[in-house]
Amino acid sequence: MSWLERLLHGEPATRGPARGDPERVLAVQAVLDELRPIFEADGGSVELVAVEEDFVEVRLHGACGSCYASDTTLHAALEPKLKEKCPWVCGVRRV
User: Most buried among 26, 58, 79, 91, using CB within 10 Å?
Assistant: First the structure.
C-alpha cells in the first residue's frame, strides 16, 4: 500500500472485518489467502470488504489499485477461482 493510499484511506486493518455470512466470508477469505502471493508479487493486495448475497466485494490496494489491468485480474483470474471453490458466487465487485 502506498503512503498516499494510507493517507487517503487508512490502513486496511482499521476498516473492520468483512461483512456478510460468516461461513461465506471464511470461504472467500481462504481463496484470497491462496491467491495473495500473486497480488503481492506485483506490489498489490486485495481486501475482502463484504459478501453480499452471491457477490463478493473487494478493495484493491497498492499497485493493484491503480493498475490498468485490475478489472481483468478480478474478472478473469479472481472470479473464476472463487466460482470454482465457492459455487454460490455469482460475481466480484470492486469497491
Answer: 58
User: What is the helix (H) or strand (E) element at residue 29, kind and residue range?
Assistant: helix 22-41
Contact call for residues 90 and 51 (beta carbons, < 8 A): no
Instruction: Determine the 3-state secondary structure of 56 from DSSP.
Output: strand
At 13 the pLDDT is 47
**Joined grid coordinates for residue 23:** 461461513
CA dihedral 12, 77, 22, 60 (to 10 degrees): 10
17-65 residue pLDDT tens: 899 999 999 999 999 999 999 888 888 889 999 999 899 999 988 877 7
Spatial strand order of the sheet with 55-62 comes to 44-52, 55-62, 91-94
Tell me the fold of 3-94.
Answer: GMP Synthetase; Chain A, domain 3 (3.30.300)
Q: What is the pLDDT at residue 7?
A: 52
